[in-house]
Amino acid sequence: MRANSWSQSPLILFLTGALLPPAGIVLLWLRTGTGIFKKILGSLLMTAWCFAALVMFFGLRAEMDGSGIRPMFRFHRPEAHYVRLERSRSEQKVEPVLETKVEKVTPPDIPPTVKNAYWTDFRGPQRDGRYDEMPVRTDWPAAGLKPLWRQPIGGGYASFVVANGRAFTIEQRRQQEVVTAYDIATGRELWAHGWDANFQESMGGDGPRACPTWHNGRLYALGAAGELRCLDAETGKRVWSRNILSDNDAQNIHWGMAAAPLIVDDRVIVLPGGAAGKSVVAYDARTGEPVWKALDDKQSYTSPMLVKLAGKRQLLVVSAGRLMGLTVENGSVLWQFPWTTEYDINAAQPIVIGDNRVFISAGYGHGSAWSRSGPRAMAFKCSPCGPITV
């Protein structure tokens, strides 16, 4: 049976493939006199164009799941989101925020802890995800808790810290990384401080990664491309700034700077990962001037912690190749344990257990270990998700 003459027209095939690629592929295979190789090649080209059109015109995004193998497809239209966000902020600024108005809308059952400086650090005061200040409410209604307010914010992966009735985070808004402060009672944005930066990564997603840190009325925020800024937490005004990558001759790691700044003894501890003794760096928290620089490790995505192990106060750091305890004074190595994972992805926070033990884990089939700190560091490895036997 001979195909219709219109299906043989190269112009019809081109227009159909450009406007409706699936139909173009069907039309291509109906053509007579076209070799199988050309049909396969044409089908591949039209399929590629179909995905390109979905990306360019409809916002199709492909991001990898946690395994790094299986893609997840979704439609993302950042322009529409930014327009909605900007409209929301513009509406908030129409009326001034009056103290009397804030008092009227403050729910009476908000715990007083959110008005104090408690959850001021990544994963809490000790960076261990533990909340000890007061009992957590567990008598939730069957339908769930009633939302008090909701509004759009920018993209990224940073969580919030809370101090004095304000919630702070860092977001991606168009071509800027923006540190923001929100009133907890109303959700109203109180201030926003931004700089030009747009970190993009197709597998992990776009935007800043590191959670800001609040300390003594100042906020310390680190962008995905290494911009470190100290801001007045009340006004959002810049006190000082450094770029920890250019400052330490360091290259950014694949998924961006993700380690939250750690404040210890009026010093800001960051992990730029520079060579020649510039991997772990301490800046003066008041002025931004360098205090000390140490080690040569390539860094990863785990935030430094201040801990006490074997009776000694120390910094707990996980680089791309090892778990280690460092002195607070100058970053000298007290003990170490090799910990190398595929793609140099160390992202899980270590867990301190007891007086001298640390638990560490990693994905990508690497497993976990329970390490005894000190010069004779020992570890007991286990298979992924399996129990640890000591």
Structural description of this entry:
This protein has helices at residues 10-19, 21-30, 36-58, 78-92, 99-105, and strands spanning 60-64, 71-75, 161-163, 166-173, 176-183, 189-196, 213-215, 218-222, 227-232, 238-243, 262-264, 267-270, 280-284, 290-294, 305-309, 312-318, 322-326, 333-338, 351-353, 357-362, 367-372, 378-382. It is an alpha+beta fold and 390 residues long. It folds into three domains: 5-58, no CATH class; 78-129 and 151-299, Lipocalin, CATH 2.40.128.630; 301-390, Beta Barrel (Thrombin, subunit H), CATH 2.40.10. A four-stranded antiparallel sheet has the order 3-4-5-6, with helices on one face. A hairpin with a 5-residue loop joins strand 5 and strand 6.
Give a quick precis of the structure.
By secondary structure, this protein is an alpha+beta fold. It is built from five helices and 22 strands.
